[in-house]
């Protein structure tokens, strides 16, 4: 017994085959061209906002490397000249390759973006 396909079944089958082939091709190309450079974390400080008894500062961590970073710790210092007035720390659990994550740190003293110094303190490889 042979089944006859109507025109709609043929179109759906063809489109499905093309989509599956495209997804498999994309995954193969991505895996083939992926480098092995370690995470390259870049920390950006945003504009401080006043909260209830404290100042909130947005922090963006961008991973420009080819590998994922886990357990990322970011240190943010509020400086006045060479003196550190306050220190705050941000923990981000996961920053995939070529992506960014955002978080907030808080300070008691009013910060200006010029007085803030942020840097990655460390991360773990998954």
Automatic annotation (TrEMBL):
Question: For this UniProt entry, which segments traverse the membrane?
Answer: 12-32
Which key words are in the record?
Membrane, Transmembrane, Transmembrane helix
Q: Kindly provide the name given to this protein in its UniProt entry.
A: TIGR02588 family protein
